[in-house]
From TrEMBL:
GO terms for biological process: lipopolysaccharide transport; transmembrane transport. This is Lipopolysaccharide export system permease protein LptG. GO terms for cellular component: ATP-binding cassette (ABC) transporter complex. It is a multi-pass membrane protein. It comes from Alteripontixanthobacter maritimus. The lineage of its organism: Bacteria, Pseudomonadati, Pseudomonadota, Alphaproteobacteria, Sphingomonadales.
Length: 365
């Protein structure tokens, strides 16, 4: 029995079913509570837009829920691990399994396998659902909860430079010469960086070269006068390639799309450290669920009657939450070049895998 990593088939299925039910229950509870709190803070803003009603609130919830699921699934696995292992310990099931000859690793094996499958499903869910809902939600928020953009390639809050001048847009959609912008602002600046003119337009299209602002309002800083114009072309030196590469949001792109854009950045000599860290984190992030049974394993062992079961559960929870803190800190360090991108994404995972394995071996094996 000691040479087999998994216990018997019946016991493996039993433990996996317990774990799956608790993961689902905790995840539903967290998402419902957090979604209710989110709606309390944003419903007023959504309903303030003319024409919005209950349908738009449901739309917002539909776009926000996938983000909450992706973000809090590892937390759900951690809490489900503690609930499952504490229950098994209190009912003396862990003692029975160890008396039957199972090692601590064999007791945890079904949970680790279930967590690994959960990580795979989380990665697929992020790629297929979360990236699209995030892109749509960000574009909707940038449009002040007006008409929802239907273009899946919409980017929100984009900024471009043309020498000392700046062009900003609430949304950018389309590709090639079909690129269009909404909520456009053009800042004309002198050589000292001071704003001379400001033009605001509801939309802009590619003029080849330059960008045609439709129905702009021009504000002259020196005279403090505003004039309405039919159209004007600005940013002659701002190319289509610069706009397409102007702002990449890793949260709205799939694993393979982000890799392609990183390669395009490399070819034009742009900095890619932040994007590469986010790219690696698209793999290491979902795998956080796989770590949770190992970090929470300390709650499974030790006698329940010793009075230390609660302390063990707290230690397991502390290890799990410490991982998320270190992971976020390392990703932030990688974003501005403090860590290499690969190290920023994977160092917390391997570090806490070693910590969890060390605690398990020293206390139980």
């Amino acid at each position: 029995m000691q040479l087999d990593f998994f216990p018997s088939r019946r016991l493996t299925i039993y433990l996996a079913k317990l774990f799956v039910v608790r993961i689902f229950a905790v995840l539903v509870m967290l998402v419902l509570v957090l979604m209710a709190l989110d709606l309390l803070s944003t419903s007023g803003t959504i309903l303030a837009t003319p024409g919005n009603g209950q349908g738009e609130l449901l739309t917002y919830a539909g776009l926000r829920v996938p983000q909450l699921v992706a973000r809090f699934l590892p937390y759900s696995v951690l809490l489900a691990t503690l609930i499952t292992l504490v229950t098994l310990n209190q009912n003396s099931e862990v003692i029975a399994m160890k008396a039957a000859g199972l090692s601590a690793h064999q007791v945890l094996a079904p949970l680790l396998l279930t967590a690994l499958v959960t990580s795979g499903l989380s990665f697929a869910f992020n790629e297929v659902v979360v990236t699209r809902s995030t892109a749509t939600l960000k574009a909707w928020e940038a449009n002040e909860y007006g008409a929802i953009p239907t273009d899946s390639g919409v980017r929100a809050n984009a900024y471009f430079t043309d020498g000392t001048n700046i062009l900003s847009a609430a949304t950018v959609s389309g590709r090639g010469e079909a690129i269009s912008m909404t909520g456009v602002t053009w800042y004309a600046r002198d050589s000292a960086g001071r704003i001379v003119d400001q033009l605001r337009a509801p939309s802009a299209t590619y003029a080849g070269p330059g960008w045609r602002l439709l129905d702009p309002v021009r504000f002259n800083v020196e005279t403090t006068k505003a004039d309405r114009m039919d159209e004007i072309v600005v940013g002659d030196a701002l190319t289509l390639e610069q706009v397409e590469l102007g702002r990449i949001d890793p949260d709205t792109q799939s694993f393979w799309q982000l890799r392609d854009d990183i390669d395009r950045y490399d070819r034009v000599g742009r900095r890619t450290a932040e994007l590469e860290a986010k790219w690696w984190h698209k793999l290491s992030g979902p795998l956080a669920a796989f770590l949770m049974p190992l970090l929470g394993a300390i709650a499974a062992f030790g006698l329940a009657r010793s009075g230390q079961l609660f302390v063990r559960a707290v230690i397991g929870m502390a290890l799990g939450f410490a991982y998320f803190v270190v992971d976020n800190a390392a990703l932030a360090m990688g974003s501005f070049g403090g860590y290499p991108p690969f190290l920023a994404a994977w160092a917390p995972f391997f570090l806490f895998a070693l910590i969890g394995e060390t605690v398990l071996i020293r206390t139980e094996e």
